[in-house]
Amino acid sequence: YAIINKRVGIMIEQGLLTEIETLVARGMGERIKRANVIGYSELLDYLEKTCSLEDALDLIRQNTRRYAKRQMTWLRNQVEGREFADSTGLRRAVTESLVEFGPS
Questions:
Q1: Distance CA 16, CA 21 (A)
Q2: How far is CA 50 from CA 35, 54, 82, 93, in A?
Q3: What angle do CA 30, 35, 38 make, to 5 degrees?
Q4: Which stretches within 26-52 are classed as H helix?
Q5: Are 78 and 97 in contact (CB under 8 A)?
Q6: Domain coordinates in residue numbering, the chain
Q7: What's the pTM value of the predicted model, to 2 decimals?
Q8: Residues 62-91: pLDDT tens digits?
């Protein structure tokens, strides 16, 4: 969780909210909602005053964790017969699999 929480803070520091404000000013608010991109939808809710900034950031963190969990589950299912105690072992196995399959 710590990495995801830190990453969300970095995204805000690097101007994610300003980027969304710019897109909204260009009339793209509805497109942002339809795209359902983590971070954008939640901050759009904040800009529309349907939640506080802290609530929006909490939702970004929560949705990112859920997405990361789905990715890890998918990756584990792609590397048959192997178990991983942590992401380092998974990363190594994915790298080995990519090398095994070679360039496409």
A1: 9
A2: 19, 12, 45, 43
A3: 110
A4: 29-35, 40-47
A5: yes
A6: 2-101
A7: 0.71
A8: 999 999 999 888 877 776 666 666 667 767
